[in-house]
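User: For my dataset I need records formatted as: sequence, then structure tokens, nothing else. Please produce one.
Assistant:
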Amino acid sequence: MRTEAAKRVELVFSLFDANGNGVIDSGDFDLMTGRVLEAAVASDAGAKEAIRTAFRRYWTTLATELDANGDGVITVDEFRPFVLDPERFGPTISEFATALSALGDPDGDGLIERPLFLSLMTAIGFEEANIHALFDAFGPDAEDRITVAAWAVGIEEYYAPDLAGIPGDRLVGAPAV
């Protein structure tokens, strides 16, 4: 696993541990889902249900694949090797990427404006400066919008263990100069 990917994994774990108790459980996903839905006020019921479903599947996949002892929690050590395994986790990430990027496009024009992108990513827990760096890395147009497709691909790339220098690396801090 590349160093960049390892940093992304650590960040995702910390974000998914929404209540900060050091492990991931179903309550963390409920908490994060609620925060994201609060930020998606303009989205329709279908888009909101899609993100609820994607978050549920994310938790179910983690619990099914990792919670061998049935204690209902995922530790960081359990999480690290799993989350970047495309064969085990790829379909879950694809569903999540599609749902989250669509949530950012409530008017259905295929474009995501920076303020809504910022709101959704802040609701997930990313740092504001890193969110702006990510948005800029996606190459916004003159009206400060990115495409839904670019964001969806960016989410999927974030979970690829062999990729570095991708837009998502900006979420773990300032890129090396």
